[in-house]
């Protein structure tokens, strides 16, 4: 008997204490702090705590749908404090189960719970800026919206109005045309910007906030008339954000019919929106949108062909605007160098459009030209094109921002740019001929070409 007791004590001592600590390095600490369904595929400590405290851990593993249903029922009848405790874990648990099952109704539920936790609490609204769960809830909301409207990563995001199922009812999602229109264009062909890997640019810029960042294409609502020039390229993708606004989320907890509305916002025009009486930053992915358009081969093929050939075709448009014309914003015109193309300005464009002050005050236009042509000839086209586009967008001279246009050139483009600011007089012509220009017998077409390419005055 005594030997048995001594053996048991020795065994207990050898096994060590049931509770203890061990030192962690900085990476292990950080990994533990940020571990959640989005970073590791496992639940965060906050969601684990809900399951442990309610003795629902095993139940959730065995029957996640019924477990979520029980928690949802408790939200409708529980206190504000109970909602604050349960809503965030419900967002992560729903997203976790949606990832495992592929059921879109649980992605939509995750977005609903995250929105309700972030914005829908009349009492004790979440506001602690240091609470990491705020950022996680926003990320769950953002990614869940994308997952609801597309089949798998890389697919188009199909923003369509309709009645969408939820595990506890349905959500009627409204889409108003005004949010899908921008000036003379409509948004289409949406891609999830966060799901796009970017290569070839020095920096990738993301603005953290609320909403699903998308890369969208623009299409004209009405085709241009004969002879009208389209300065905006179909290759260009614009960074926009889709925000799902949910009506009365707290009241909706006890209602199986919920109403939501998809709103689209452009990074060039809107940075913050009003939600639940607060100004909230929208999330944008400016770099991914830029890279998506530059991934097209035609953006780069011009470099060699433009150096080796000269094109006269009427459809060749030398000037491209990177956003639809924005009155009141100063144009920054970029002119590339020899055997190059506007695509070579990608890093500069990426850096500038990442800055909100730049987006508020400037717009970028790019000029392309056949770099094998004489400098003076190309400079004449640049000047003429700038005059034409100003006449097109501001025929009455009402937009003062156009009078402050900035033209930047690289290499040969710098020579073209210089031609917009000099007074050449007859000096270029005198190098070609001792006969005064006005005395030379020329056809009207040739005379006009020479005047454009040899006689320069500063553009106003």
Number of strands: 14
- In the predicted model, the low-confidence regions spanning at least 5 consecutive residues are none
**Outline:** elongated
Helix content: 40-55%
Describe the sheet with the most strands. Answer: 8 strands, mixed
* Class computed from helices, strands and strand pairing: alpha+beta
The average pLDDT is 89
Helix count? 17
Taking all Cα atoms into account, the compactness measure Rg is 30 Å
How big a fraction of the residues is strand? 15-25%
Distance between the termini: 107 Å
Can you describe what's shown?
- With 460 residues, the chain is of the alpha+beta class.
- Helix content is 41%, strand content 17%.
- It is built from 17 helices and 14 strands.
- It has helices at 2-15, 26-34, 45-53, 57-62, 64-77, 80-101, 104-119, 132-149, 249-252, 286-294, 298-308, 346-353, 356-361, 375-393, 412-418, 427-432, 444-454; strands spanning 156-157, 162-166, 169-175, 181-182, 185-192, 212-220, 238-246, 257-266, 272-275, 278-281, 319-321, 330-335, 362-367, 406-409.
- Strands 1, 2, 3, 4, 5, 6, 7 and 8 form an eight-stranded mixed sheet that branches. It has a four-stranded mixed sheet with strand order 11-13-12-14.
- A hairpin with a 2-residue loop joins β4 and β5.
- α14 crosses α17.
- The longest helix has 22 residues, at 80-101.
- The chain is elongated.
- The protein starts with a helix and ends in a 6-residue tail after the last helix.
- The model has no long low-confidence stretch (mean pLDDT 89).
